[in-house]
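R.M. (postdoc): so does anyone remember the format we settled on? I'll just put the structure tokens first.
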């Protein structure tokens, strides 16, 4: 069994040009030619092509190839950050609802709401959980708010009431956004104040890995998502995992890929191959591998 705790629908609803422009620039500069004109053109064309999978057909196909049983789709609320963002949040959420209704056995959905929307945002969040069966809350602090902002406390009360987790992004995002609110320590007040709510640090197993690891070891309700591990060298990947296991975090780490963000690093099955390397190299035994690949997330979602 394999569960992916961190994916998105490949669409400009989730990866809008305002976000991807800066992100692509960084990708282009990392290429061997450091951003020649043909490289730029090719990357942009490829990105536009890959960022169109609204039906999730491509994602489902890649999940099947990689033996991933079920994935969590995370909504991101861009509306207050990018003023010219073209999709109202109600529309983005309703779109995810439709996908969930079509594939209830293949996806979970985490609602994404900017807390600065106030009561209206809170009502939409509650409706998505109560009436549509959404399974968690996704936060994107680089948009300009802290995960410990008091405006989020009523959201966390709903999470507590329904027993659902919060997944919050950690670390740098697109250069068009701020990183300061996405530092690991920003979660601490919320996690301390809401001990019954489980908080997943998105990318936290590899981004600011040391600080995230200390927080997860210190608080029962903090977990680390692995997504982004695809970009690590094999050696660095193994070293970081060994460090986490020394902190006894085998019950706190969740497999995730951040599809489609790392599509330049290969298909979902390539990500799985990299995970299996931890088994063959003896970094993980089968028990810990199963915890990370699905059992930890299963526990959070039940
Ligand atoms: Zn993501």
């Amino acid at each position: 069994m394999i569960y992916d705790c961190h994916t998105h629908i490949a669409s400009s609803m989730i990866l809008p040009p305002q976000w991807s422009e800066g992100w692509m620039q960084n990708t282009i500069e990392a290429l061997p030619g450091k951003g020649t004109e043909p490289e730029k053109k090719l990357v942009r064309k490829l990105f536009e092509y890959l960022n169109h999978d609204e039906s999730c057909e491509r994602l489902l196909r890649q999940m099947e190839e990689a033996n991933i049983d079920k994935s969590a789709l995370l909504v991101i609320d861009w509306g207050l950050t990018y003023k010219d963002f073209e999709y109202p949040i109600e529309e983005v959420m309703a779109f995810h609802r439709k996908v969930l209704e079509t594939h209830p056995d293949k996806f979970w959905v985490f609602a994404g709401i900017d807390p600065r929307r106030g009561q209206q945002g809170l009502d939409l969040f509650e409706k998505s959980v109560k009436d549509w069966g959404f399974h968690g809350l996704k936060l994107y602090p680089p948009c300009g708010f802290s995960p410990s902002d008091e405006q989020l406390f009523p959201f966390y009360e709903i999470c507590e009431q329904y027993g659902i987790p919060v997944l919050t992004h950690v670390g740098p995002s697109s250069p068009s956004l701020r990183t300061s609110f996405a530092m690991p320590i920003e979660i601490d007040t919320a996690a301390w104040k809401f001990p019954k709510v489980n908080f997943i640090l998105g990318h936290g197993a590899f981004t600011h890995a040391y600080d995230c690891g200390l927080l997860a070891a210190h608080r029962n309700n903090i977990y680390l998502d692995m997504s982004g591990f695809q970009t690590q060298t094999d050696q660095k990947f193994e070293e970081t995992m060994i460090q986490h296991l020394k902190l006894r975090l085998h019950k706190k780490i969740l497999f995730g890929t951040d599809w489609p963000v790392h599509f330049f690093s290969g298909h979902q099955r390539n990500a799985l191959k990299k995970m299996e390397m931890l088994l063959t190299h003896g970094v993980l035994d089968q028990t810990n591998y199963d915890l990370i690949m699905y059992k930890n997330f299963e526990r959070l979602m039940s």
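R.M.: ...and that's the designed sequence above, right after the tokens. Also worth knowing: The chain has a mean pLDDT of 95. The longest strand covers residues 107-112.
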